[in-house]
TrEMBL record:
The keyword Oxidoreductase appears for this protein: yes
Taxonomic superkingdom: Bacteria
Alphabetized PANTHER family for the sequence: DUDULIN-RELATED (PTHR14239), F420-DEPENDENT NADP REDUCTASE (PTHR14239:SF0)
Name assigned to this protein: Pyrroline-5-carboxylate reductase catalytic N-terminal domain-containing protein
Entry keyword annotation includes Plastid: no
């Protein structure tokens, strides 16, 4: 069987991870996806929530992605991040789709950043130092994702999503969002991702490009 044109890895097969997977699959992009469960145990869940996605071990999340798209999406609750081995995503562009919720017991390295009011993506960039971290996909609810992804629509008619990142990795992520059916808008470097967090002005709002540009650096 021939290899698919592009493969994206997704860590986390919950509400967010499977919504991302569905949009990617609709765009003709193959998906490797991991949860805490072994791949065989994940099969049934994926048949329902992300048919066509390939279950893999967390340790194998970037095996195919690394040599095609180069992209892995992080959709694991922040309280579980100590269980995600940074080596799994070495050499990838890691899309940080995570958020901090008030009742979460965060890993110490992440709580320290929150206490200092630093954007959580910056702490993740330190933790996952062998990947290039870009913040995206965190500020839209999974319940809205399927309808909001409109790959057939003109860019200006699509829902806009913000992207924050420090180098050309940001462009790679923006290209992915276009294929998924959104209008990606750069808000600046990783530090600018603060405006995408749950207490920020972009969170869970149906935005157009001009709405996001009002807050971009
Ligand atoms: N829900 C949303 O609308 C939404 C939207 C955007 C962003 N987010 C963010 O995305 C993150 C996940 O949220 P969610 O709502 O999708 O949570 P969820 O429904 O609870 O799903 C979490 C997933 O992460 C998996 N997981 C936990 N530890 C893992 C590990 N060490 N390795 C691999 N997978 C692991 C879980 O595995 P099991 O299935 O085996 O338990 C589960 O599949 C959060 O930070 C959230 O803020 C959520």
């Amino acid at each position: 069987m021939s290899e698919p044109e592009a493969v994206v890895g997704i860590l986390g097969a919950g509400r967010a991870g499977t919504a991302f997977a569905r949009a990617l699959l609709r765009a003709g992009i193959a998906v490797d996806i991991a949860s805490t469960r072994p791949p065989r145990a994940l099969q049934h869940h994926l048949k329902i929530y992300a048919p066509g996605a390939d279950p893999v071990l967390g340790a194998d999340i970037a095996v195919r992605a690394r040599t095609s798209s180069g992209l892995v999406i992080l959709a694991v609750p922040q309280e579980e991040l100590d269980e995600v081995d940074p080596d799994w995503v070495t050499g990838t562009v890691l899309i940080d789709a995570t958020n901090t919720w008030q009742d979460e017991l965060l890993p110490g390295w992440l709580q320290a950043a929150v206490d200092e009011q630093l954007p959580t993506s910056m702490a993740l960039a330190g933790r996952f130092g062998a990947a290039r971290v870009v913040k995206a996909l965190n500020h839209i609810a999974h319940t809205e994702f399927d309808d909001a992804a409109q790959p057939g629509a003109e860019l200006t008619q699509r829902r806009a999503l913000a992207v924050a990142g420090d180098d050309d990795a940001r462009g790679l992520v923006m290209g992915l969002l276009v294929r998924m059916g959104f209008d990606p808008v750069s808000v600046g470097g990783l530090a600018a991702g603060r405006i995408m967090e749950p207490d920020g002005p972009l969170f869970n709002r149906p935005l157009r490009r001009e709405d996001i540009l009002r807050f971009a650096r």
